[in-house]
Amino acid sequence: MEYSIKTIESIGPYRIVKLIPEKENLDYKAGQFVRLTNIEGVGRPYSIAACPSFPYLEFIFHIVPGGQFTTYIAEKAKLGDKVEVSKAAGHFTYNGEKKAVFLAGGSGIAPVIGIIRHIVSNKIEGEFSVFYSNKDFSAPYLSELLSYSKAGLIKLYVTFTREDVSGFHNGRFTPEFIEKETSLGGATLFICGSMAMAKAFRDALKDKVEAVKIEAWG
Q1: How many angstroms separate the Cα of 168 from the Cα of each of 16, 21, 55, 184?
Q2: What is the DSSP letter of 89?
Q3: Whole-angstrom Cα distance, residue 158 to residue 149?
């Protein structure tokens, strides 16, 4: 499916990009990913940060040296550039769970914010806790998540691993911290981040929750 770039927003080492469809919008579930192919023919999989009711798609790109797709986004992409979007795939999806715990590291917030947006926009009631870790205050969607927390829609825990910011946690989350801060019994645990992080938290918490869903890389 053909889309075009509507906006590009810079937040620290990240770019948040919105794509608008040339015709109809993609059919997908909150939390899924697609393969994006740019005008240079470079394709990579990325999780969708929008939710299905939005009239556009949204993605987070962590700009890293040597990354072919992210270098294009950071240095060459222009508003109006065409992007080819594949069919949606993946099982890191929200399926109506009334109790869920989300753990996201860095750009791993992408599918999590998509799911939270779906929950909020559909006024789904339940117990939803979000544990979000980023290197510093340049954390995508932080203000949006804080607004949901203030409204009582989610319980939010944020930590910065390389910056000490008043009012937030410092250092890395641990399984013990998550178990202490939130009720895990009967919950689905969603983990999105590095493979090492996902494996560590899955192994430590899998027997304390109803189910575990993972989206990981590296």
Answers
A1: 23, 38, 33, 22
A2: B
A3: 11
CA angle 184, 214, 41 (to 5 degrees): 155
Dihedral sign from CA coordinates of 37, 40, 41, 42: negative
Nearest to 61 by CA among 12, 17, 120: 17
Q: Which domains does the chain have, with CATH numbers?
A: 2-89 (2.40.30.10), 99-216 (3.40.50.80)
**Are 40 and 73 in contact, with CB atoms under 8 Å apart?**
no
Please choose, from the candidates 49, 75, 71, the residue with its C-alpha nearest in 3D space to the C-alpha of residue 62.
71
CA distance 47 to 108: 8
Q: How many helices (H) and strands (E) does the chain have?
A: 5, 12
- Through-space distance between the first and last CA atoms of the chain, rounded to whole angstroms: 28
- What does the mean pLDDT of the chain come to? 96
pTM score above 0.90: yes
* Residue 153 DSSP code: S
Give the length of the chain: 218
For 114-158, the pLDDT digits (tens) are 999 999 999 999 999 999 999 998 899 999 999 999 999 999 999
User: Is 49 a residue whose pLDDT tops 80?
Assistant: yes
In 10 A of CB 57, how many CB atoms?
Answer: 26
Q: How far apart are CA 113 and CA 50, in angstroms?
A: 7
CA distance 11 to 101: 26
Report residue 218's pLDDT band, with 50, 70 and 90 as the boundaries. Answer: confident
